[in-house]
Structure formats: structure tokens, C-alpha cells
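pls design
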């Protein structure tokens, strides 16, 4: 169990209730086992009842191409938001039509606003 998974379980049972997480993934699916582990941690947080937003930036945008990444599909089922950096997608010639139907192209202004929310916990990978 990763530290994030343990933290999610302890917070789920805390009197403060569920939290809000913005998980920022900058690595592609092929970057090694930690890229997938980060998305699996996001799934665990969402399953525990936390509000989860995943922001895919840099090579992380490739996780939102098509329907091939099971964690993206599961996150969508759980009501998590899948956000894709519009600049990173454009730099990699990815348009909205190549992305998962669960993903939304957004600018950095959306992420800045999310990170400034009082209860938001940002985690960058």
C-alpha cells in the first residue's frame, strides 16, 4: 500500500470527512510502474468517497487517449474529473476527438482555480 492509499483510508474514517484532491500526472503510461500507480491511487481516493480531479499534463496527456487506460475508465465511473492540459495536448498533436470521452481539455486557469480552493489537496507526479 502506498502512502497516498494509506492516507486516503485514514482520512475517509476521520471526522472531517472526505477531502478534495487534484492529482497532477506529468508522466506517460510507459514511464514505468509509478505512472500507473499514481492513477491507481486516484482510483482508491475516489472509491473512498473523496472528490478527485486528475489533471494530465506533459506526457501524462497520453493516458487520456482513447479508452485504453483502465484507471481513467474507472475514475470516470466513480465521478472523478479527468482534465487534460490543452497546451500539452496541442504540443503532442492531440485534439479533443482523440481523447477519451471522459476527458476535458482545460487551460491552466482551471487548475490554478482548483488549487486555490480551501479544501483542495494538490499532488504532483
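designed seq:
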Amino acid at each position: 500500500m502506498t502512502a497516498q492509499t494509506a492516507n486516503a483510508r485514514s482520512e475517509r474514517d476521520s471526522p472531517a470527512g472526505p477531502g478534495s484532491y487534484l492529482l497532477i500526472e506529468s508522466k506517460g503510461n510507459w514511464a514505468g510502474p509509478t505512472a500507473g500507480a499514481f492513477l491507481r491511487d486516484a482510483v482508491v481516493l475516489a472509491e473512498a468517497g473523496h472528490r478527485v480531479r486528475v489533471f494530465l499534463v506533459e506526457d501524462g496527456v497520453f493516458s487520456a487517449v482513447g479508452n485504453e487506460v483502465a484507471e481513467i475508465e474507472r475514475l470516470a465511473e466513480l465521478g472523478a474529473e479527468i482534465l487534460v492540459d490543452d497546451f500539452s495536448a496541442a504540443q503532442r498533436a492531440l485534439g479533443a476527438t482523440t481523447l477519451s470521452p471522459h476527458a476535458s481539455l482545460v487551460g491552466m486557469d482551471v487548475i490554478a482555480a482548483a488549487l486555490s480552493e480551501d479544501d483542495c489537496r494538490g499532488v504532483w507526479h
